[in-house]
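Q: I'm writing a short explainer about Class I SAM-dependent RNA methyltransferase for a general audience and would like to include a description of its predicted shape. Could you first generate the structure from this sequence?
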Amino acid sequence: MNENFKMLAKTLFGFEEILAKELRNLGAMNVKVGVRNVTFVGDTGFMYKANLALRTAVRILKPIRQFKVSNEDDLYNLIQTIKWDNYIDVNQTFAVDAVANAENFTNSHYVSLKTKDAIVDYFRAKVGKRPNIDLNHPDLQINIHIQHRDCTVSIDSSGDSLHKRGYRSATNIAPINEVLAAGLVLMTGYDGTQHFIDPMCGSGTILIEAAMIANNIPANINRREFGFEKWSDFDPNLFDTIRNSLLKKVRESSAKIIGYDKAPSAIYKAQDNIENANLTEFITVKQENFFRTEKEIEGKTIILFNPPYGERLEIDVPVFYKEIGNTLKRGYPGTNAWLITSDFENGLKNVGLRTSKRIKVFNGKLECRLVKYEMYEGSKKGKYMKN
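A: Of course. Here's the predicted structure. Afterward I'll give you a sentence or two in plain language.
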């Protein structure tokens, strides 16, 4: 029988509450929200499920030891007290990722090196050999987190970051991160009962994440590998059981999911990625200039898009964003329109519509706002135009 243990799911800034809700819906216990992370309790099967199903998690860590450290010698000595042969064979590879926020540990890279030395020396003393380092594709990814004097040693069950879903083979300029895309879709309140439009869809990431949400398809069902598959205690039968259980909960949404982009190359890339994700029957993409479109579908509709910021394309930003506002007013009454941008001065101020929500998020290191415009039918829409 599997025992329960504590885990930590890392996420992007602003998505902590959404991730906590995802975890509760999956059946996690003792869910607690932190900063860019959520801790929870579950068993090995739940760890497999969390990696497969969570949309807004970047990685799932399993803490194995916690202790107090005052300096590098403390760290080295305490790392050596861990029975590393329970986690890795001398013929396997490992890598160490460290985050240090403490007066006595100001260099995270040095913390990584000190941890690596301690593990290597542990094996040399015990078996006369050492495991090798592989920074790109290690058999075991180790995470060290030092906050003041508290050190947590974890093993990373995800391996590669969970934003690497496995469906994206083709990208455009500055493609949006898949976890960010999924989080933004969930922030709009989209659940598959509404129609969904991405009017500047690029390589299709937002559309794909929306379609997986609409049809309750596990976020990482297309991934080739997770970190835990290389662990000595990996249970392939349990993993298959969890995977099949999640696939039985897939449903079929009848709402339309539509993407536009004016660049033919973007449409080709989006079609490739949609096909890789096995979602061709659920998503329609068209080569269209959004500024020349209007709403073609009846019923509740959510629009979400990631328009170019000044960093991404050479455009006249004020004119471009003004045209976004004009197109929404003219062509998309009766919709809730959301967009993310880092351009507050030249961009958002020129949309010409009043926002009903503004949420702080980050796209990489860029501070952004996810904003909502409620486009009312008929005369009400005038209410949301700036005076």
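A: For your explainer, you could say: Residues 108-127 form the longest helix (20 residues).
Q: Perfect, that's easy to follow.
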